[in-house]
Amino acid sequence: MRVAWSSRKATEHGYATVAAMIIALALALAASAVMASALSALREARADGERLRAAYGLEAAQTQALTTLLAQRKPGRYRWQVDSPVGPVEVLAEPEQPKLSVKAAADLDDATLARLGVSDPERLRARLVALAAGLGGEGSVAQADPAPLWQACAPSLISAFGTADVAPVLAAATTPGPGRFDWRAGEVWRLRLISARGWAEDRIVRLTGDERDPAAVIERRLFHDTPGGEPCASLFG
């Protein structure tokens, strides 16, 4: 009887130990999940905070860039640097009207598209046709193809506001200089800004001639990019 009783007590003790271990493991897993969730939320909050600071800094830089643009009279593209709350920002300003129209871009040959890194020309042409018809779900020329070179250079060559039917030569951008102020009312421009930390903002704006609101934003995109240089003019100049 004593042996049986001792055996039963040992078995019960073993079950209790196993149950305690299972509970401890469950608690540890729950704590780990809570910690992982908290760390993920913290990372997201920090990313949102950095994105907000970048957007604020680039907003200020956009205002400076627009003021400089309105003081220029010579035609062409401009590239320069401005200070901002997020440090130095590189600015590229381009008029949209001289660019290739989206409709004409849909007729570009395979060789030209290959230079832009496009691996599926027919798929891209279909998207460009849809964009030209106002049916494009991608929303912009830059997003019409995933190739990095296309996304970097196509917006400098092609525009929904472009009127050219033959791809223009992409002249190197010049540095703005002193000039006579002009509202440039009705003109559409692309302003691409990129910070030293790699935050970039692309805006397509229509200049209004209204001193209270001189530029109406048509399209705006905030993303990450690599600052420095102008490789597209080297490739397509």
Describe the structure.
This protein is an alpha+beta fold and 237 residues long. Helix content is 45%, strand content 18%. The protein contains six helices and seven strands. The strands form two sheets. The protein has a five-stranded antiparallel beta sheet, covered by helices on one side. Strand 6 and strand 7 (215-224) form a beta hairpin. The termini are far apart. The mean pLDDT is 84.
Task: Write a short abstract of this structure.
The chain is an alpha+beta fold. The chain has helices spanning 2-69, 102-105, 110-115, 121-132, 148-157, 231-236, and strands spanning 78-82, 89-95, 100-101, 158-159, 188-195, 199-207, 215-224. The protein starts with a helix and ends with a helix.
Count of runs of 4 or more consecutive helical residues: 6
Helix content: 40-55%
General shape: elongated
- How many beta-strand runs? 7
Physical arrangement of strands within the biggest beta sheet: 1-2-5-6-7
Order of secondary-structure elements? HEEEHHHHEEEEH
Give the low-confidence spans: none
* Overall pLDDT: 84
Radius of gyration from CA coordinates: 29 Å
For the termini, the CA-CA separation is: 99 Å
The assigned structural class equals alpha+beta
Strand content: 15-25%
* Largest sheet properties: 5 strands, antiparallel
